[in-house]
Amino acid sequence: MKSFMKTKSRWLWIPLVITNITCTLAQIAVYKCENGKVLLHSDASLEVIQARCNKLKGVIDPVNQTFAWSVEVRFFEGFNSPLQREHFNENYMETGKYPKASFSGKIIEKTDFSQPGLKIIRAKGKLNIHGVEQERILKCQVENKGGQLFIKAEFTVPVADHNIAIPKIVHQKIAEEIKVTVDAIMIE
Amino acid sequence: MQALAQTPVVRAHATADLGNVQPSCIYHDTNGWLWLGAQHAVYRYDGQIFMPIKFPDTVKDATVSALFEWQGTLFAGFQNGYIASLENAAGKLPVPSGDIQEDTRRAPALHPWVPEEGLPKVPITGFCTDPQGALWIATYGEGLYVWKNKRLYNFNQADDGLAGNDIYDLSCAADGQVWAATDAGISICAMPEQGIKKVHNLTKADGLPDELIVALCTDQQKNIWAGTNEKGVFRIHAGTQKIDYQIPDWKHGQVNDLCVFGDHEVWISTEKAGIIWVETAKNAIHLMPKGHLFASAKVRAISKDREGLLWAIADRSTLYSANVRFSFWPTPFSNIQAILSDQSGRMWIGSREGLYVQGLQGYKPALPKTENIVSLWESPSGSEIWAGTLGNGLFILNPAGKVLKHLPEGKSLPNGSILSIAGNEHEVWLATLGGVSRVNQQTLKLDQTESSEFLGSYYVYKVFSDSRGRVWFGTDGNGLVVYDQGKFTAYTEANGLPLRTIYCITEDAQSNIWFSTDRDGLYKFDGQVFKRFTTANHLHSLNITALATNGKGKIIIGYEDGFDILDPSRVDHVNFCGPNNGAPKLEVNLNAAWTDQQGNVWLGNQVGILRFATYLEQFIDDPQPGITGVSTFFNPVDFQQVNTFDYDQNFLQFNFLGLWYSNPDAVRYRYRLEGFDPEWKISKDHTASYPRLPPGNYTFRVQTSEHGNFENVPEASWSFTIRPPFWMQWWFILLAVLTAFTVLAYFVRLRELRVKREASFKREKVLSQFETLKSQINPHFLFNSFNTLITIIEENPKIAVEYVEHLSDFYRSIMVYRERDLISLNEEMELVHTFEFLLKKRYENGFHLIDRVSDHLSGQVMPLSLQILVENAVKHNVISSSKPLTIEIFKENGHVVVKNNMQRKIKPEASTHFGLQSLKNRYQLLGEQPVVVEETDQFFTVKIPLL
After folding, report:
1. Which residues of B are less than 8 Å from A139 in CB distance?
2. Which long-range contacts (CB under 8 A, 24 or more apart) does B782-788 make?
3. B664 preceded by cis ω (within 30°)?
4. Cβ of B229 and A3 within 8 Å?
5. Do B121 and A109 touch (CB under 8 A)?
6. Phi and psi dihedrals of B375, rounded to 5?
7. Which of A1, A2, A3, A139 to mutate to test the interface with B (most CBs of B within 10 A)?
């Protein structure tokens, strides 16, 4: 029975761990990115706001199927006015207190990133924005083209989830859910 | 031995329509519909027709592995991790035609369900919902997912401590937590708040007999039952999370699925023994008899519906249903006449072939010799079993089966044929073929003194002690007799009960006494009044052989060909159980009925015993009606949204269905369109048509029944309105009346005006004619004319003749034209020129008339209008050679203009001012443009509209 094999497979972890250690020692290649693009899009009834940043840093460990992404929030630009950007940094995101937004965790499906071609994978991890951590599953598209990983993801972030207080009246100008688009190229 | 259908009686459903598609999962939704998942479609089954629902285009070739209804939407999980849904299935599915291809074409497809987080890539193995309303999804390989407030979360082994990532089944227990079966134990999971995960595992360390859990199920108390790979089935209390029951000595292989009835019976689909069932209170494992469909079938999944049917999907595309409330055991002895289940749950059976008691290896004889046992009784303390024989007196045994005493017919027992026994700690009543004997249970001393008058030497078929301490006797010859507080009473003709023979007696939960008669039906006695029930009250027959009350307070009425279930709480609500609805064919022997401690009713016949089980859950007793489609002129209507129609959308057709999987062929409908049908119509058809409904408000009501008895049965209804056409709406009628009134008023007024105007026009005309005449034969004019004539006669007689001719011409013209309303400008100008000639002769160079209209003489004017103007000019102005009067006549903007230079006479001639005024009035009455008069120092101008 399949399930029986599962039970027995518990003992297989020992050699796996050994392999892992060896890999870490040998500094097996990880995929890295220093200049990923993040686009924020707020579509409220009275105003559409977009901000972008191309300083997203990320790393994927293909052996352990883990990943970590982070971006400095103060680098976002492209708001409708400089005042808006100031509000974003000081009133809402409080970048002084919480300079970074991050997402790190594991990939749900076992994925061989070295295979060329397009894959849809799901990343399960902790999304930390404004100092509040939320567990999220984010669906992304990964394509290996010539050894580079092209990552694309789109997801929504409800501001309330991260304790970002926006006065009710301002919701006419700032959406309750911010659409986030990520576009990154990772190199081995 | 009589041929008997084996129980449970299994119905194999014709799945040929599915084209050898193997159903992979089964689900019952909250409306009672049965859903099947398969490789190419999901099917909704009504007991007769499979209604197919296609997959979305994105999952052409996948197999449904789980079905679930969540917040009114049906969810289908697939082998490949895909999830699809169908909202509001009832309102959207067309009425099935039975032609699977045609139905597939007409039915809407499932919608892909696409959360932002993406979908699993491994098989979906189950769904459930927790008390907070979150949707839990089990996968085989990725652990659990929770859909809470539009966000998908994952529970897995590595991150969240789940016992395993391969989930076989999941179920929500009484503690509000979700229990997941894995191959390393049970994971009890919860998400009390958004994103907060709680996981607690039960493993071998917690006492699980086997960690490989393959199936989970909750019972009525929402405790968890788990089926394992090797160790059978056990129950875990949801509160303490401790195992409180395990089926002992399991040797039937892996459990594939399980299903709990009440809290003391579990049906299990096993790898080795097919479907089996276990009475947990007795630790009794019941295997299906050899050759039974359930014994051999490779059953993948079983489930329970709201009618109490057990459904099973087995290999080779088969779908089975069975009413497991009926179970029948053939006995190795025949002719069962008395049944008793003692306080330890052991069965004692009295037959013509002796007394038998249930042991571990089946039934064994309890008496040394074969006795003809007709009655059984257990003492309240449970220390004695009394068995009455036909002819050989009474045997008293202890529960172990040892005969304590034999009381044969004789001095202490006047009649040795004991048909029925009842009593309490002190006294026991024996109903015999010669009256009743009262026996002291301890001393066995007989006391029969007071009863002889009432019970004498009658046959007494039944003695029954009720909940109020009364003892009831059913006699042959003296009807119903009761012993209450030391006194006997017989209910005879004087009490309105002309009955001689009473066979069976029972009592319902409201302490009403029910008794049956010799072919005179069933009676209920509430202490005051007897109420009779016959076939008119839907009893199956009048030939009643046994009565019992089950654990739900229903009266079970045994016949020689089946039994009825009568619900005392509903008027005349009787369900017959026979071979048609899953009960075996049964001839119930006289008073061979027993109600056990669980409330199950046992009935005995020639060859065995039948158990009609009572479970904790409330199963439905009637087909459940539902309106499945409404169409106007054969076009389906979304009747859950639309209920108003235009006056010309008045051909309505209703489709309805009484879901009754127990016996779909027997369902009868009674319907009525309130507002149209004066009476109910009874039919077997699923359709009612109403062509040409007049505008109005209607309610379509449909009721369903299995036995043609429509008293107190469930009903479905749907109200709608046919709007009157717009010309019959109140606002339109009001508007139309107002408009008609206004138009009428307008015409009346118009006519009045016209009449008035005509009258004044006539008057004006007459006046004008009169004035004209008057002025023309004005002596002054004649005098002047004659003077002129005199002058010219002498000078030039030829011209004089001409003058007279003109003068007469002038008068003739006046006479001709004055009658007419209008004359042509040409005629008028001729008249003016004649007049001019006359004036010219008189004033010679003092008068000039310049005619500028003669070139275009079209148009009409009033007769003599221009002439009068010329005459006026002559009348009011000085005319001399030195100051000549010049009159111009010309056209201007559709007017004829008469214009003269102004040289007023110093002494004006007497004037009535009639001429000009009359002209003005007449033009006004004609409704034309007005006559315009302009007067300046130099000129006097009059403009007459040209018609």
Report:
1. 116-118
2. B784/B842, B785/B838, B785/B842, B787/B842, B788/B838, B788/B841, B788/B842
3. no
4. yes
5. yes
6. -150, 150
7. A3
What is the longest distance spanned by two Cα atoms in chain A?
65
Clarify whether residues B675 and B604 are in a common domain: no
Cross-chain CB nearest to B166 (options A3, A108, A138): A3
For residue B31, give both structure tokens: 């409306």
Residue B416 has a CB neighbour count (10 Å cut-off) of 20
Nearest Cα of chain B lies from the Cα of A120 at a distance, in angstroms, of 9
Judgement on whether residues B598 and B670 belong to the same structural domain of the protein: no
The Cα B668–Cα B704 span in angstroms is 6
User: Which domain does B776 fall in, by range?
Assistant: 750-945
pLDDT tens track for B809-837: 888 887 788 777 788 888 888 888 888 88
Q: Do B759 and B657 share a structural domain? A: no
How far is the C-alpha of A159 from the C-alpha of B124, rounded, in Å?
Answer: 32
pLDDT of residue B134 exceeding 90: yes
For residue A15 the two structure tokens come to 């050699």
Which residues on chain A are in Cβ contact (under 8 Å) with B271?
Answer: none
Contact (CB, 8 A) for B621 and B595? no
Structure tokens at B674: 């309130």
Residue A87, judged by CB atoms within 10 A of its CB (0-12, 13-18, 19+), counts as middle
Last residue of a domain, one of B614, B633, B668: B614
Please state the ipTM of this predicted complex. Answer: 0.79
Chain A interface test: which of B122, B159, B166, B211 (most A C-beta within 10 Å): B159
Helix (H) / strand (E) element for A105: namely strand A100-107
Candidates A64, A122, A155: best to mutate against B (most CBs of B within 10 A) is A122
B562 within 8 A of B540, measured Cβ to Cβ = yes
- The pLDDT of B346-353, averaged and rounded, is 92
Domain end position, chosen among B544, B579, B614: B614
Assigned domain for B215 exists: no
Question: What total of structural domains would you count in chain A?
Answer: 1
Please give the residue range of the domain that contains residue A142. Answer: 29-186
Note the pLDDT tens digit of each residue in B567-608: 888 877 888 887 777 777 778 888 899 999 889 999 998 888
**pTM of the complete model:** 0.76
CATH number at residue A106: 2.40.128.110
Please indicate, yes or no, if residue B346 is contained in any of the structural domains.
no
